[in-house]
């Protein structure tokens, strides 16, 4: 009897081992690895050596690609920061969370506004936090801050599932660096001047009516309008004079540590905090989202890398970012976590073609792809580098040429952590573990919808059976890469009005044979033209039936500056503080 029980126990053990091996082989297990997500800002598809650049040195990212899978059809959900990152965090198109705009402002352009990633959205950080993961965000947020007061922090990363935050709640703008032409001032000057004149005219009219008796006016009304005008003038002055102090600061969790930010050692601090987080949580499991400030303008670069590249300040910035990636990966290796860490590298959208200083190009290179940051559905704005490394689980030095979205990281890491998908909302991302591991041959994505704000600009259709990849553009931005076109005049392309061209029938491209979108098809040149367009239009109609109205986080009311929402370290409006502990030299 004892021998029989012993045999049964050994049999059960063998079955368990075989089952475990089978599950691991086909990616069906929940292994709870550490999750390291690295996102660059404004990095172009063609800026890395592993994606075809032979003039900028990126040895660390190139090595990461050799050790993992390189994603060649990796698609951002939007061509600008705020909506793209919202989709990345939630696995949902930005239009579902209210982060798709109908106005020219498609991102949060100041920190003292009331819009943000809604608190009823469930980020992947919140899912993993619920599974016992320690979660951290280091770097850029750009998803809003306050709702009703200067310190309610309703949209703060710690309210969206992160246990630790160190970085900037806003984004980098030229205003953050002394001596640069101020972006916020340039974009707001005409609007503020118009409303200032309107307020002055109203006060003058009320006073005239009171003094002449032409119409009855109470002094209280005049006083109220005058005070409102003064407050408006303060806001006008603040956006021009205090922008660097009010919008450019560093936080640790809920505390402002440095206002304004010192860009000369920001890279050092972000690197230091990333390495420290890894060391503190080496027992795992952890989720670390390193959201680089690089390579967004202004391209702040430390002395160690300044002037080292062949592409000026931008190239220096890319090479410094690559060095930072190398240091973070070295910290993973030092703690013996390489084989148990799912590592992912990407960019939030394509390179910024209009970023210039005089005649000097400051933005990235998008390779063979047309367009760039802010340009609706053109490939250059939404096709981004993507790399996944997971030693022993994902084959090294492989290339995956299947449509994958930034939204896919949401269900993918949730699966790895053993978390269930929210059942009360549409999740547009797809779990790509089986595809990454070669267990299936094709991506689950058949259609991808490319929005510019609230406006659907383009749709891609992947025919898995034939391998055909079609893309229809209903709207395209007015952009001439060889001349100072409309986008250059406005600094960034818009989604509607005189700055776009509507196409009926849509511009249709076969991306399999024309990835540069250089040769639009026609019914005469493509026998399947009408069939493809009709199929895409049915998919659009079906997609729109899944949309429900939500509050617009980027409407005028939510993006205007509200003094009572302005975070401040010190006495408002003179916000200033300096954390002396952040003056450490760069980690070598």
Report on the architecture of this protein.
With 588 residues, this protein is of the alpha/beta class. It has a single domain (31-172, 248-571), classed as Alkaline Phosphatase, subunit A, CATH 3.40.720.10. The chain has 16 helices and 21 strands. The protein has helices at residues 2-25, 59-66, 81-90, 94-97, 124-130, 183-212, 219-241, 243-247, 266-280, 312-334, 379-382, 409-417, 433-436, 486-490, 529-544, 556-559, and strands at residues 34-40, 69-71, 74-75, 134-140, 164-168, 250-252, 255-259, 286-291, 341-347, 356-357, 360-361, 386-389, 398-400, 404-405, 447-452, 455-463, 468-477, 500-510, 570-571, 574-575, 577-578. Strands 13-2-12-9-1-8-4-5-6-7-21 form an eleven-stranded mixed β-sheet, sandwiched between helices. Strands 15-16-17-18 form a four-stranded antiparallel β-sheet, covered by helices on one side. A hairpin with a 4-residue loop joins strand 16 (455-463) and strand 17 (468-477). Helix 6 packs antiparallel against helix 7 (219-241) and helix 9 packs parallel to helix 10 (312-334). The longest helix is centred in the middle third of the chain and has 30 residues, at 183-212. It is globular. The relative contact order is 0.18.
């Amino acid at each position: 009897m004892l021998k029989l029980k012993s045999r049964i126990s050994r049999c059960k053990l063998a079955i368990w081992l075989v089952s475990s091996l089978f599950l691991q082989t086909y990616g069906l297990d929940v292994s709870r690895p550490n999750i390291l997500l690295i996102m660059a800002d404004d990095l172009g598809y063609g800026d890395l050596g592993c994606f075809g650049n032979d003039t900028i040195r990126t040895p660390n990212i190139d090595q990461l690609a050799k050790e993992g899978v390189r994603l060649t059809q990796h698609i951002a959900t939007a061509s600008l920061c705020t909506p793209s990152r919202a989709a990345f965090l939630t696995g949902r198109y930005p239009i579902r969370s209210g982060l798709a705009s109908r106005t020219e402002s498609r991102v949060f352009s100041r920190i003292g506004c009331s819009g943000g990633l809604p608190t009823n959205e469930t980020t992947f950080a919140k899912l993993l936090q619920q599974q016992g993961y320690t979660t951290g965000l280091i770097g850029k947020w750009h998803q809003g801050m306050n709702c009703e007061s200067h310190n309610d922090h309703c949209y703060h990363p710690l309210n969206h599932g992160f246990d630790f935050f160190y970085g900037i709640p806003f984004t980098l703008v030229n205003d953050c660096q002394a001596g640069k032409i101020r972006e916020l001032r340039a974009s707001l000057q005409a609007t503020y001047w118009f409303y200032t004149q309107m307020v002055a005219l109203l006060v003058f009219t009320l006073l005239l009516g009171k003094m002449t008796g032409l119409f009855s006016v109470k002094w209280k009304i005049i006083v109220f309008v005058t005070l409102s005008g003064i407050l408006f003038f303060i806001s006008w002055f603040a956006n021009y004079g205090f922008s660097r102090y009010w919008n450019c600061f560093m936080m640790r969790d809920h505390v402002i540590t440095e206002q304004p930010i010192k860009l000369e050692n920001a890279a050092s601090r972000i690197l230091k905090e990333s390495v420290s987080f890894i060391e503190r949580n080496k027992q795992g499991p952890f989720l670390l989202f390193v959201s680089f400030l690089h390579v967004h303008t202004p391209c702040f670069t430390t002395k160690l890398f300044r002037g080292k590249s062949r592409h000026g300040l931008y190239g220096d910035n890319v090479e410094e970012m690559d060095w930072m990636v190398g240091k973070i990966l070295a910290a993973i290796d030092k703690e013996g976590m390489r084989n148990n860490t799912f590592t992912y590298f990407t960019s939030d959208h394509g390179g910024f073609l209009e970023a210039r200083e005089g005649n000097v190009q400051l933005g990235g290179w998008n390779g063979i792809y047309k367009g760039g940051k802010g340009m609706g559905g053109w490939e250059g704005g939404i096709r981004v580098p993507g790399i996944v490394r997971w030693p022993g689980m994902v084959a090294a030095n492989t290339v995956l040429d299947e449509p994958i979205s930034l939204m896919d990281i949401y269900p993918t890491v949730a699966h790895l952590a053993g978390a269930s998908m929210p059942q009360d909302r549409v999740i547009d991302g797809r779990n790509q573990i089986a595809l990454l591991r070669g267990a299936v041959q094709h991506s689950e994505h058949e259609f991808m919808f490319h929005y510019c704000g609230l406006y659907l600009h383009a749709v891609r259709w992947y025919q898995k059976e034939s391998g055909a990849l079609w893309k229809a553009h209903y709207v395209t931005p007015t952009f001439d890469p060889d001349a100072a076109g409309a986008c250059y005049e406005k600094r960034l392309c818009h989604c509607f009005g005189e700055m776009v061209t509507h196409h009926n029938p849509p511009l249709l491209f076969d991306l399999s044979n024309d990835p540069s979108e250089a040769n639009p098809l026609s019914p005469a040149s493509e026998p399947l033209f009408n069939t493809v367009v009709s199929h895409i239009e049915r998919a659009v109609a079906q997609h729109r039936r899944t949309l429900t109205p939500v509050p617009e986080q980027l409407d005028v009311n939510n993006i205007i500056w509200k003094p009572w929402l302005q975070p401040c370290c010190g006495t408002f409006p003179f916000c200033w503080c300096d954390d002396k502990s952040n003056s450490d030299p760069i980690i070598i």
